[in-house]
Write a structure and sequence with these properties.
Distance between the termini: 46 Å
Shape: globular
Largest sheet: 2 strands, antiparallel
Number of helices: 12
Order of helices and strands: HHHHHHHHHHHEEH
Structural class: mainly alpha
Length: 247
């Protein structure tokens, strides 16, 4: 009976996806070791959860610096922290973290790891994931984040993967590094979308921009407003993803 109860409790805990449970499976809390199997299961559940953005935003506010520290401690291009970072890369919390000293070299690091890896991941899904992550980083941090030397090593790898797997994430990453004009425009659009809340008034229909003239939300630091009135009127929609950021 105790074994059954324990199993049921474990299953219930697995089904309850929270920012803290994701951090636990990433190995960021207490003495817990990372658990890639449980993390993948919870991320799969999270994709169907209407509160996905809320949970991911809370995770970023509480754990993003620790997750990046864990990422920096790795030496392979695909790993548990990278997998989680790829999930969070669309959020303004992530875009703002990239502007800090601690986040300034993530694109360079990912490109270098993909360049120097002695072998490819056995699972093609891992290759797609790391190419998607690098593609997003290239859009957010710019092509200059990757050295010309690393670029010349990466291009043949990406072309080989592109022929073998025919996945859009790999194709997009390849075209970015090749300087394809259409893909460059798309990357700029992604960057504007991800960073919009950092430099444009969050009140719907305002559109005023210019970070030096806007008021930053003191709690999450991922939203700005042209005045207190617009901030107050935006609070009902903003509060769901507004968490006290530790960075």
């Amino acid at each position: 009976m105790s074994w059954v109860s324990g199993t049921q409790a474990d299953m219930q805990a697995l089904l309850n996806v929270t920012a803290d449970s994701l951090a636990e499976h990433c190995g960021l809390t207490g003495d817990q070791q990372e658990n890639s199997v449980f993390l993948e299961r919870q991320l799969g559940l999270l994709q169907r959860n209407p509160s996905q953005s809320v949970i991911n935003s809370e995770f970023c506010a509480k754990y993003l610096p620790a997750l990046v520290d864990a990422y920096n401690a790795q030496d392979t291009p695909f790993n548990v922290p990278m997998r989680m970072l790829n999930v969070l890369a669309y959020l303004p919390y992530f875009s703002r973290f990239l502007l800090t000293t601690a986040g300034s070299s993530i694109c360079k690091t990912q490109a270098r790891r993909m360049t120097t890896a002695s072998s490819d991941p056995a699972d093609p899904v891992c290759i797609v994931e790391m190419c998607q992550f690098l593609s997003t980083l290239l859009a957010l941090q710019g092509m200059n984040s990757v050295s010309e030397e690393d670029k010349q090593v990466l291009l043949p790898k990406l072309r080989q993967w592109n022929r073998r797997y025919l996945k859009q994430q790999i194709t997009r990453c390849l075209k970015q590094l090749e300087g394809d004009p259409e893909t460059t425009v798309m990357a700029l659009g992604l960057k504007r979308h991800c960073e919009k809340s950092l430099d444009e008034c969050g009140f719907e229909g305002c559109g005023k921009s210019g970070t030096s003239k806007l008021l930053q939300c003191s709690r999450c630091k991922t939203a700005v407003y042209c005045d207190r009135d617009h901030q107050k009127k935006s609070w009902p929609s903003h509060k769901t993803t507004c968490f006290q950021a530790i960075f």
